[in-house]
Design brief:
The protein is of the alpha/beta class and 444 residues long. It folds into three domains: 4-87, Four Helix Bundle (Hemerythrin (Met), subunit A) (Up-down Bundle); 98-280, P-loop containing nucleotide triphosphate hydrolases (Rossmann fold, 3-Layer(aba) Sandwich); 303-438, Signal recognition particle, SRP54 subunit, M-domain (434 Repressor (Amino-terminal Domain), Orthogonal Bundle). Helices cover 60% and strands 9% of the residues. It contains 19 helices and eight strands. It has helices at residues 4-19, 25-41, 46-62, 71-87, 110-123, 140-151, 164-174, 193-206, 223-234, 250-259, 281-289, 291-318, 324-336, 341-346, 356-374, 378-382, 389-399, 403-425, 427-438; strands at 98-103, 128-132, 155-157, 180-184, 210-216, 238-242, 264-268, 276-278. Strand 2 (128-132), helix 6 (140-151) and strand 3 (155-157) form a beta-alpha-beta unit. Helix 1 (4-19) runs antiparallel to helix 2, helix 4 (71-87) crosses helix 11 and helix 12 (291-318) packs antiparallel against helix 19. The radius of gyration is 33 Å and the shape is elongated. The protein starts with a helix and ends in a 6-residue tail after the last helix. The structure holds guanosine-5'-triphosphate and magnesium ion.
Length: 444
């Protein structure tokens, strides 16, 4: 996984949010400190890391969650959004006829990435040709030839030619028929003037539609100044980061180029030609944070909260007070089942152990009860004794059910109430139930 270290520490932090009993200022401050530490460890620029965490804190403390979103989800969403923000705008490669020039310092991954890009475009249905202009390293032509052969694309190069621009001139003629021409250039240890002159000359002949800078992401924040220097020299349209597999400094490289306004197109995540991924900040961050896992965790947290509510209702029930509203609350939880399955057996008047068929039947019945109760007035819910035959007709009409169903509901209510009364008077039984509730023994 890309940036495993950063990902795992951020995921650990998000877990804190998911598992916290409630979200408060202290928790947010703690989370923000964790994120700061994680970003700095991933080599993200201090200023950028501070800006991000300040913004997360400000938003988490001041913004209200949109309707239907819990405060946990909201804080996690803010963190995700701010992380996406520091990665900047992505750029997509156009799927059309064009000339692409790859530039970069020595050993950054230009040649490999030229092959990866050729493979990518080929898979998208374009015909591609590769051009080898590295006149300095003798093995360069062979390296690109091998890549070209493995993906079955034409290559043009001339190991005997000493001028890169001449090779390009020939290549443009030879590869006229292909959709995309990808020119691999030579690298240097540093941005010396002869490298600059050479790629400038290549560019003059090739007139590339895209000049792509290939950057080894292990250089971390150095990516920023390097990108700027290349941009000033030849004009860079997009960046491809390589070696994002297994680097602790990837966060530094990614954030550094976005800071100077350069757009990342792809990331290289391995030595194989298929190890090229479109760079999509949103997806990148989702994966980094393990959003799929987080969603599951949030759902689990929701269940835990329901258990809390179940306990509250059960306590109220044990106090002896019980009206139709209380019954509706219980039923609401019952219909969610899952970890509450066991609790159902604990509610007096409902069967203790249900088969799946019984369960389905009961759920159906509960659904009908719910519809009926929706047609009752608040007064009726709080004081069910009021419900006599004229009201029963009105309620059944209003809910589109039979009067018989309304009577069944009232019968069920009376049974539950009676059982609860007996229970509330039975101290031994009460203690047993409370113990079960406190142990959180709801089963799954
Ligand atoms: N793990 C990993 N290795 C990569 C990746 N991209 C390139 N490499 C490796 O990095 C090394 C250098 O890659 P090249 O493509 O030869 O780099 P270059 O920029 O063309 O190098 P020069 O032409 O010598 O300047 C090779 O061993 C590649 O296999 C990547 O995304 N992940
Ligand atoms: Mg090379």
């Amino acid at each position: 996984m890309v940036l495993e270290g950063l990902g795992s520490s951020l995921r650990y932090t998000l877990r804190k949010i998911v598992n916290a009993s409630h979200i408060d200022k202290n928790l947010i401050k703690e989370v923000v400190r964790d994120i700061q530490r994680a970003l700095l460890q991933a080599d993200v620029n201090v200023k950028l890391a501070l800006e991000l965490t300040r913004e997360v804190e400000r938003r988490a403390l001041s913004e209200k969650p949109p309707a239907g979103m819990s405060s946990r989800e909201h804080v996690i969403k803010i963190i995700g959004e701010e992380l996406v923000n520091i990665l900047g705008e992505p750029k997509a490669i156009k799927l059309q006829k064009q000339t692409i020039m790859m530039v970069g310092l020595y050993g950054q991954g230009k040649t490999t990435t030229a092959g990866k890009l050729a493979r990518y475009l080929q898979k998208k249905g374009l015909s591609v040709g590769l051009v080898a202009t590295d006149i300095h390293r003798p093995a360069a032509y062979d390296q690109l030839s091998q890549i070209a052969k493995s993906i079955n694309v034409p290559i043009y190069g001339d190991p005997d030619e000493k001028k890169a621009s001449k090779i390009v001139k020939q290549a443009l003629k030879k590869l006229k028929g292909v959709d995309v021409i990808i020119i691999d250039t030579s690298g240097r240890h540093s941005l010396e003037s002869d490298l600059i002159d050479e790629i400038k000359e290549v560019a003059k002949i090739a007139k590339p539609d895209e000049s792509i800078l290939v950057l080894d992401s292990t250089i971390g924040q150095q990516a920023g100044p390097q990108a700027k220097a290349f941009h000033d020299a030849v004009g860079i349209n997009g960046i491809i980061f390589t070696k994002l597999d297994g680097t602790a400094k990837g966060g530094g490289a990614l954030s550094a180029v976005s800071e100077i306004g350069a757009s990342v197109i792809f990331i290289g995540t391995g030595e194989h030609l298929d190890d090229l991924e479109k760079f999509e900040p949103q997806r990148f961050v989702s994966r980094l944070l393990g959003m799929g896992d987080i969603q599951t965790l949030l759902e689990k947290a929701q269940e835990v909260m329901d258990e809390g509510k179940a306990e509250e209702t059960a306590k109220k029930m044990l106090s002896g007070r019980f009206n139709l509203k209380d019954m509706r609350d219980q039923m609401e939880m019952l219909t969610q089942m899952g970890p509450l399955k066991k609790l159902m057996g604990m509610i007096p008047g409902f069967p203790a152990d249900l088969s799946q068929d019984d369960l389905t039947e009961t759920q159906k019945r509960l659904k009908t009860f719910e519809v009926i109760m929706d047609s009752m007035t608040n007064e009726e819910l709080e004081n069910p004794k009021l419900i006599k035959s004229s009201r029963i007709s009105r309620i059944s009409r209003g809910s589109g059910t039979d009067a018989k169903d309304v009577r069944t509901l009232l019968k069920q209510y009376n049974m539950s109430k009676k059982a609860i009364k007996g229970l509330a008077g039975n101290r031994k039984m009460r203690r047993k139930l409370m113990k079960q509730l406190q142990a959180g023994d709801f089963g799954a």
